Amino acid sequence: MAPAEHDALAVREQLFHQRVRECIICALLFASLYILCHFIITHFKKHADFAAVHDDEDAAVDRIALGLCTFTLAVALGAVLLLPFSIISNEVLLSFPHNYYIQWLNGSLVHGLWNLIFLFSNLSLVFLMPFAYFFTESEGFAGSKKGIMARVYETTVVLLLLTLLVLGIVWVASAMVSGDAASRQSLYDLWEYYLPYLYSCISLFGVLLLLLCTPFGLSTMFAVTGKLLVKPRLLEDLDEQLSCTRLEEAAVSHRISAGKASCWLNLNVELLREQLFAIRSKRRKLELRHRASPWQRNLGYPLAMLGLLALTGISVLIVCFHVLELLLDDAAMPRGIQDAPLGQVSFSIFGSFGAALQVVLIFYLMVSSVVGFYSSPLFTRLLPERQDTPLTKIIGNCVCLLVLSSALPVFSRTLGITRFDLLGDFGRFNWLGNFYIVFLYNMGFAGLTTLCLVKRVSWAVQAELLRTLGLHKLPVTRSWPLCKPC
Question: Which parts of 96-147 fold into alpha helices (H)?
Fold first, then answer.
């Protein structure tokens, strides 16, 4: 064998082994996410007792739909971890460029993960989740033989009709937006044009949803932190409050027992019981604060609030700086590239510390967006309950979480939280090149977050000062007009 042929064969073998290694790593990562998501879904799923005639059929349908939901939730979790994993991989390759044990962590693997997440996100949103919903609601066509295949046939027909309807709507929308005659005459570019266009609309909706939910979630997290953690004592006698509350509880209990024992006393027992429950709740909170250690009371709450304030303030500062970059430099636009260099340059001006801060901010914004999503009045009904969530609600939760998580890389890059360019097909969205949309989006996030932060902090400080000085116990006097109305 000639030396040139031997070298070419060695290169092909190396490429083959590299591809096999990447497939094994991707399979292991996805299997880990799938197992984790399976435990999460079974923790919330309502247990169904299949006691009807077709119990085996219903149980099989339930297992199939549960598997599709688990797959979709695993894809959503992978989309959340995609950008932080890429940033950490870049910093690891920068720190250890010639380490033998991290050679598997290369640009080809990261690019492949981005492409797989994009593919599975489209597959789950367009096919798997609608199929799971229609499959659980199907019973088979009238007159056909009952069974799993009858439900599969009905679900397939309904899904095909829905697909044709959605593609027709997308075709009309693309024809109205684009002046190209070819886009109005054929649907041959289904995979190259129409599905990315459809997913672009979905991602735009997800990014707008993140814009609305994140500031609301930040405000909710401040309120929840104040309720869960024990606040420090400032100019208050907790022992005296606890003893007064116990005496008040004993007095109300005595009045209830006396009202039951005597027929001469005309007491509203139900009102007294409600008052007793409120006093007991207040007494438990005071006992919890009384049992808290000085470190937990004087250090835990201030550190948690300072951490939330710092992360929120840093996010707003980064977005404001990104707005200035958008006005001065066209390169700040969130355009995606196909051949991004990995392990050559840091994507933060502060090096590894800046990259770690970017990862923390990405997770912080994602958690706050999820909290804001489930705290908003429109989506509170979707909040899952332990061992009491029906399968249709699980499907809705998986779809919403996938929309939010798949929009997270675009959300982070659009706000300038990270400078890591969008890989794969995430950068093909048409609206990413529109300066006015990106600029208004950054301004909207900075304005809404600052407004929620100022309102929450100012109200919290005002309430704490009133409570500390005892002014909250003063009676509120109403000012009546001097002259009588006619």
Answer: 107-123, 129-137
Rounded CA-CA distance 438/188 in Å is 31
Rounded Cα–Cα distance for residues 94 and 88 (Å):
10
Longest dimension (CA), the chain: 114
The C-alpha atoms of residue 413 and residue 107 are separated, in whole angstroms, by 19
Both tokens of 478, joined, read 């109403």
As given in the structure block, the two tokens for residue 259 are 């009202």
Q: pLDDT 10s digit of each residue in the chain, 486 long? A: 566 666 666 777 777 778 888 888 889 999 999 999 999 998 888 876 444 445 677 788 888 889 999 999 999 999 899 889 988 888 888 888 777 778 788 878 888 888 888 888 888 888 888 888 888 888 777 666 777 888 888 888 888 888 788 777 767 766 666 555 554 444 455 555 555 566 666 777 788 888 888 887 877 777 777 666 656 655 555 666 677 777 777 777 777 776 655 555 555 667 777 777 777 777 777 666 666 666 666 666 778 788 888 888 888 899 898 888 888 877 777 765 555 567 777 777 788 888 899 999 999 988 988 888 888 888 888 888 888 888 888 998 999 899 888 888 888 888 888 888 777 677 666 667 778 888 888 888 888 888 877 776 666 656 655 555 555 455 544 444 444 443
Measured distance CA(193)–CA(183) in Å, rounded: 9
CA pair distance 245, 171, nearest whole angstrom: 68
State whether residue 234 is helix, strand or coil: coil
Element (H, E) at 437: helix 435-469
How far apart (Å, rounded) are the C-alpha atoms in residues 102 and 441? 38
Tell me the pTM.
Answer: 0.78
Q: Which residues contact residue 472 at a Cβ distance below 8 angstroms, ignoring those fewer than 6 apart?
A: 463, 466
SS3 of the chain: helix, strand, coil, percent, to 5: 75, 0, 25
Interatomic CA distance for residues 106 and 280, integer angstroms: 59
Which parts of 229-331 fold into alpha helices (H)? 238-261, 269-291, 294-295, 301-328
**Tokens in use for 155?**
């679900």
Cβ neighbours of residue 72 closer than 8 Å, sequence gap 6 or more? 124, 128, 129, 398, 399, 402
Beta-carbon count within 10 A of 168 CB: 11
Which among 233, 247, 342 has a CA at the least distance from the CA of 297? 233
**Chain-centre distance for alpha carbon 127:** 22
Residue type, 365: L
Instruction: Give helix 238-261 / helix 269-291 axis angle, nearest 10°.
Output: 150
**What DSSP state is assigned to residue 45?**
B
How far is Cα 325 from Cα 414, in angstroms, rounded to an integer?
A: 12
